């Protein structure tokens, strides 16, 4: 059913919003803050709000575990941002700075960066380490992303 409701965590205020799946392309707004529920750029998560995005979203969550000192992370950042813009209605794209959010990074056993991960309803679906060219990143997502 395309009109069955799904839960989306607001990119701006982290509030859960229930909306019809077929309305995702209509730029839905948050019932609390009034801003767009979806983000066309990656959400900068932290130890406090990361679990909310991962556990409370019906959309799959694509995470870039990175650090400011990491050269490949900096090189991959524009690719992640571009794909996040292109696929904003298919997944929630989140970045987590592992240096400043060590509890979350440790909980996911992050040993190298960048590490890319797809999570859905709190469960890890896929993981890949290393920066990817856009075509390979998109192919990896297409192969591994579950539908909401």
What does this protein look like?
- By secondary structure, the chain is an alpha/beta fold.
- It has a single domain (40-144), classed as Glutaredoxin.
- Helices cover 27% and strands 26% of the residues.
- The protein contains 4 helices and 7 strands, in the order E-E-E-H-E-H-E-H-E-E-H.
- The chain has helices at residues 50-56, 71-86, 102-107, 134-144, and strands at residues 5-9, 16-20, 43-45, 61-66, 92-97, 115-120, 123-129.
- Strand 1 and strand 2 form a beta hairpin.
- The radius of gyration is 15 Å and the shape is globular.
- The model has no long low-confidence stretch (mean pLDDT 94).
Which tags fit this structure?
148 residues, alpha/beta, Glutaredoxin, two-stranded antiparallel sheet, 4 helices, 27% helix
Produce the secondary structure layout.
Blueprint: E1 5-9, E2 16-20, E3 43-45, H1 50-56, E4 61-66, H2 71-86, E5 92-97, H3 102-107, E6 115-120, E7 123-129, H4 134-144
Parallel strand pairs: 3-5, 4-5
Antiparallel strand pairs: 1-2, 4-6, 6-7
- Please list the strands of the largest sheet in the order they lie side by side: 3-5-4-6-7
Portion of residues within helices: 25-40%
Named CATH architecture: 3-Layer(aba) Sandwich
- N-to-C span: 12 Å
Uncertain stretches of 5 or more adjacent residues: none
* Mean pLDDT over the residues: 94
Beta fraction = 25-35%
Q: Indicate the CATH class.
A: Alpha Beta
Tally of helical segments: 4
Beta strand count: 7
- Series of H and E elements: EEEHEHEHEEH
Overall 3D geometry?
Answer: globular
Provide the CATH superfamily.
Glutaredoxin
Largest sheet: 5 strands, mixed
- Give me the secondary-structure category: alpha/beta
Radius of gyration: 15 Å
The CATH topology annotation reads as Glutaredoxin
Q: How many distinct folded domains?
A: 1
């Amino acid at each position: 059913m395309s009109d069955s409701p799904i839960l989306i965590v607001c990119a701006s205020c982290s509030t859960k919003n229930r909306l019809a799946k077929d309305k995702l392309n209509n730029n839905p707004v948050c019932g609390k803050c009034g801003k767009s529920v979806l983000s066309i750029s990656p959400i900068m998560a932290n130890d406090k709000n990361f679990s909310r995005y991962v556990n409370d979203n019906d959309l799959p969550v694509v995470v870039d575990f990175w650090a400011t000192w990491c050269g490949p992370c900096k090189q991959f950042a524009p690719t992640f941002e571009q794909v996040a813009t292109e696929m904003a209605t298919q997944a929630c794209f989140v970045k987590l700075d592992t240096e400043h959010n060590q509890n979350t990074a440790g909980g996911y056993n992050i040993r190298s960066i960048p590490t890319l991960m797809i999570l859905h309803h709190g469960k890890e679906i896929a993981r890949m380490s290393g920066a990817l060219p856009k075509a390979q990143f998109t192919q990896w997502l297409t192969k591994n992303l579950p539908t909401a």
